[in-house]
Automatic annotation (TrEMBL):
Gene3D superfamilies: Ribonuclease Inhibitor (3.80.10.10). Keywords: Leucine-rich repeat, Repeat. InterPro entries: Leu-rich_rpt, Leu-rich_rpt_typical-subtyp, LRR_dom_sf, NLR. The keyword Transcription does not apply. It comes from Pocillopora meandrina. This is Uncharacterized protein. SMART domains: LRR_RI, LRR_TYP. Pfam families: LRR_6.
Length: 675
């Protein structure tokens, strides 16, 4: 007779109940010659004498788990030495002439199963106390999972012993939707909180063993006011994924699911896809970054987003070892008229120019609803850039944001993209070409494009390229033109000196320039360049709100020039990043005097890594103590501020009820516990 365990695969507890029956009745010495019927195998009952032996077994298993004991002596297992549930180990030498037999359960999970049987025989009060005290102890996790399954048969043990432990705490966080400009900064209500995630997963596994518990937990989840299910950085297995999906598939208020960096592979992805296909699921945002999904996982996701039940709008697949094969499958899916996807993140994969071509053909299709495409940290090269450029040039393409940073794109690729955004069909608003191989030649092509009245680009990232003062000049001339709609320009980490800064300063001083944010971090602007920029933001034509001059070899002299500028009522600057320079206490004093002035509109100031001591801290403390100061955020990390400086700042915040400072960063200073 062949008994198929799969026929009984209702839950893990049922599998182990059948496994114990088969092991014991088929392989135990006392039953070896018995011929059992199918009905006897399928029954959960054992002969009374066997049940009596199991009680001893249960206690051994429980005490072993409690004490961290996996190996047992012959006296502990006496009467069960020949049991098929034990494995005999090498004898232990007790004295020179004596040896003791040693045993262990045939598998740790079998010991955990019998420990659960022991718990299931406790009374309600005793069990409730034990579970509540140990539910977050990892060594009992599988024991409690088995317990939940065994409680189905125990009328005296209510499901609430386990379900009452479901955490209800939530937290309001930013939704991490920075992949799109429209949703950046949006708040969501997240559950579970960081300190309760392990507990939540343990309970999800438990309730999967009991349909009654599952219904109770689903009702409880619906009563918790949250929409963001957050299991970031937790280490899920495919089994964990299945447990979570089974519980939440009917909880309709969940719109966001965060599963970043678990590494559960394509099998875990297959379980998540079941949720996407569920008719009751309202999931619109899914983060599966860093999960080793590979092309196989991409295949499952492509099938899921093609399903007419799937409501997903945003999908992040960063760092999943997806190649052009996976890209082709996803590209085919997003042109299906069932697919509602608007944002897809494919950064940090192995997508080449071929994969870029598949995606280009997809966004070229009038069924495709994609607005945001992230392909950062792939290897699409100039050829892939050319394919994508041709696509965004098409009137069918609805793409608004394209991230092509870190893709080995040179001036040739930049030229193709420039020609595309120059076309009146192109709807692109944000283009990221950071960390490529673009020089002043590519910058010139892009400058010519944004100078054209067809171009709708508002944000251009060119950080980490090889753009020199010549390239800065080309871009400055472009943003000086009344056709240019650029609001944000990032030129950090290029080769721009005070000469390039002078060109840019002249541009933002012009009433045609609409630039609000300028990043120039990691260049070599120096005090001279700082002076040019200070004169520009001092002008009433300048609309700049954010200026990043971090790591630019600026001293207290440059700080003085900028301090004078932000002190002027024409200056509209709200955020100034001065980190990684060398402004010292003198520069801190100049800036303190500026933010002390009622003309200054600065809300955020970053002075991290600037050789500021307690003297500079005292000047800044005096400033934020003034009713005129509107500063809300102050970064002073990585300086030489001592306890004295910390005291000055603390007194300023505490003593002035009008102080508007909400965030103060003082990490990596010389502050002791006293400070």
């Amino acid at each position: 007779m062949v008994l198929r365990i799969s026929a009984y695969r209702r839950n893990l507890t049922d599998i182990y109940k059948k496994a114990v029956k088969i092991f014991y009745l088929r392989h135990n010495e006392e039953f070896r010659d018995e011929d059992f019927t199918r009905e006897e195998f399928e029954s959960d009952d054992f002969p009374p004498d066997v049940e009596e032996k199991f009680k001893k077994l249960e206690k051994i298993a429980f005490e072993g788990i409690k004490d961290g004991k996996l190996v047992f002596g012959v006296n502990e297992v006496r009467g069960m030495e020949g049991s098929a549930l034990f494995h005999r180990l090498l004898d232990r030498e007790t004295t020179a002439l004596k040896r003791e037999q040693q045993f262990c359960f045939i598998h740790l999970t079998m010991q955990e199963f019998f420990a659960a049987r022991y718990l299931a025989n406790m009374n309600e009060t005793e069990l409730r106390n034990f579970v509540s005290m140990n539910i977050e102890d990892g060594k009992w996790q599988l024991v409690f999972q088995f317990l939940a399954g065994l409680m189905n048969e125990k009328e005296n043990l209510p499901s609430e012993i386990i379900t009452d432990l479901l955490p209800v705490e939530t937290e309001v966080i930013e939704s991490h939707e920075e992949w799109t400009e429209e949703t950046r900064g949006r708040k969501v209500t997240s559950w579970p909180t960081k300190d309760k995630r392990r507990l939540a997963v343990t309970l999800f596994k438990c309730v999967n063993e009991s349909s009654e518990m599952k219904e109770i937990v689903q009702r409880k989840l619906q009563q918790i006011n949250f929409n963001f299910l957050n299991f970031i950085y937790f280490g899920f297995t495919p089994v964990d994924c299945a447990s979570v999906v089974t519980v939440i598939r009917n909880v309709q208020q969940i719109s966001h699911l965060e599963l970043d960096s678990h590494g559960f592979g394509p099998l875990g992805c297959l379980e998540i896809c079941k949720l996407l296909k569920c008719s009751k699921s309202q999931l619109s945002w899914l983060n599966l970054a860093g999960n080793r999904l590979t092309d196989e996982g991409a295949k499952y996701l492509a099938e899921a987003i093609n399903n007419n039940n799937c409501q997903l709008r945003t999908l992040n697949l960063w760092g999943n070892n997806i190649s052009e094969i996976g890209a082709q499958l996803l590209a085919k899916a997003i042109i299906n008229n069932n697919c509602q996807l608007q944002t897809i993140g494919l950064s940090g994969n192995n997508i080449t120019a071929t994969g870029a071509q598949y995606l280009a053909e997809a966004i070229n299709n009038d069924n495709c609803q994609l607005r945001t495409l992230h392909l950062s940290e792939n290897n699409i090269s100039d050829i892939g850039a050319q394919r994508l450029a041709k696509a965004i040039n098409n009137s069918n393409c609805q793409l608004r944001t394209s991230d092509l940073s870190r893709n080995n794109i040179s001036d040739i690729g930049a030229q193709h993209l420039a020609e595309a955004i120059n076309n009146n069909n192109c709807q692109l608003r944000t283009l990221d070409l950071s960390a490529n191989n673009i020089s002043h030649i590519g910058a010139q092509h892009l400058a010519k494009a944004i100078n054209n009245n067809n171009c709708q680009l508002c944000t251009l990232y060119l950080a980490g390229n090889n753009i020199s003062d010549i390239g800065a000049q080309h871009l400055a001339e472009a943003i000086n033109n009344n056709n240019c709609q650029l609001r944000t320009l990032d030129l950090s980490g290029n080769n721009i000196s005070h000469i390039g800064a002078q060109h840019l300063a002249k541009a933002i001083n012009n009433n045609n320039c609409q630039l609000c944010t300028l990043y120039l971090a990691g260049n070599n602007i120096s005090d001279i360049g700082a002076q040019h920029l200070a004169e520009a933001i001092n002008n009433n034509n300048c609309q700049l709100r954010t200026l990043d001059l971090s790591a630019n070899n600026i001293s207290h002299i440059g700080a003085q020039r900028l301090a004078k500028a932000i002190n002027n009522n024409n200056c509209q600057l709200r955020t100034l990043n001065f980190s990684g320079n060398n402004i010292s206490d003198i520069g801190a004093q100049h800036l303190a005097e500026a933010i002390n002035n009622n003309n200054c509109q600065l809300r955020t100031l970053d002075l991290s890594g600037n050789n500021i001591s307690h003297i500079g801290a005292q000047h800044l403390a005096k400033a934020i103590n003034n009713n005129n100061c509107q500063l809300c955020t102050l970064y002073l990390a990585g300086n030489y501020i001592s306890d004295t400086g910390a005291q000055h700042l603390a007194e300023a915040i505490i003593n002035n009820n009008n102080c508007q400072l909400r965030k103060l960063d003082l990490i990596v200073n010389s502050i002791t516990e006293a400070g």
